[in-house]
Design a protein that fits this description.
By secondary structure, the protein is mostly helical. It contains twelve helices and no strands. Mean pLDDT is 86; it is low at 140-149.
Length: 269
Amino acid sequence: MGHGDLMSQAEDVADQFLRVTKHYLPHVARLCLVSTFLEDGVRMWFQWSEQSEYIDSTWSCGRFLANVFVLLNLLGQLGGCVLIISRNFVQYGCFSLFGIIALQTVAYSILWDPKFLMRNLALGGGLLLLLAECRGEARSVFAGVPSLGHQSSPKHLLQLGGRVLLVLMFMTLLHFDLSLISVLQNLVGSALIVLVAVGFKTKLAALTLVVWLLCINFTFNAFWNIASYKPMHDFLKYDFFQTTSVIGGLLLVVALGPGGVSMDEKKKE
């Protein structure tokens, strides 16, 4: 069997998956995407005093402002998630979560930690894809109205930005050692990352990354196997839900396609 035949069969499997799941895949994608915000919002409630003390000790801002910070995180995240999941005012929900990402990036000094910064940017990429989906639904109401240039439309630019930011998550998963398994993982992962970023064989590449991330997530981030009082439990839980959110972003790429600014779209022309 030639390489072309194998690729064609893989694309057929991906297309069949899309046909079977097209009605509920976007809903699953949105739920996965907001999962890390839901988890963090709930954690703010149960760890209110710890979070408040941390902010107060880090920034010396006083307990009142520290409590305001925790309250903003709780309401901003849970409120934004409710708006997105319920499909009501999705844009406002996305803007709320964008604000939370920016707030936490500064408050927790994430700017100076490349790994966590790239993961936060990847979350932002997922939210850009949500905005693109929202714009697509809004445009369908005015289907007969002439549009601007096909490739320069805001929806397609949002999809491009979302794809590029999403792949930053995988930069944090690369292993810089010379073992055969690590080298193979890095090569395959990097190839899939490039395919998603440039929009070539996008749905198949994104679906493959979803499967890969699911395996990594349930294998290496199994926080339920660690006692809740151990610090590693919270670290693994954080990684698990952040990875789940990136999986949600990739599922949106699978559901929506790469958009107009992509090699797949160029091939159609």
